[in-house]
Amino acid sequence: xxxxxxxxxxxxxxxxxxxxxxxxxxxxxxxxxxxxxxxxxxxxxxxxxxxxxxxxxxxxxxxxxxxxxxxxxxxxxxxxxxxxxxxxxxxxxxxxxxxxxxxxxxxxxxxxxxxxxxxxxxxxxxxxxxxxxxxxxxxxxx
Length: 142
Description:
The chain is of the alpha+beta class. It has five helices and four strands, in the order βββαβαααα. The chain starts with a strand and ends in a 10-residue tail after the last helix.
């Protein structure tokens, strides 16, 4: 099971005010906000950018660590989580985009675009890709 809610640490910025947000699992995801609410809102964007960057660069997308005391949960947007789940499943199975395209019975161009962070892939397409990889998506609302 893949989860895409990561623990964020908020640190008060004594010099400039506001809060700095960092993630243990994704050290490149750093942002800030003037208030806790703004910092957490910005954290979602930083988390999304970090995961998308890892997919683009062919890097691992780590599983979220257990939260430590004082950390706050930050979830990735649903489409980003689905793209990351497809990407991780493909890597686990050593599956190329060409092979995924064959399994899905689509053009390879579609599987290339599917993982592109700038391309607005539709949720049903990502669900079909997950099914072709022997996975399925479940949504949890908390």
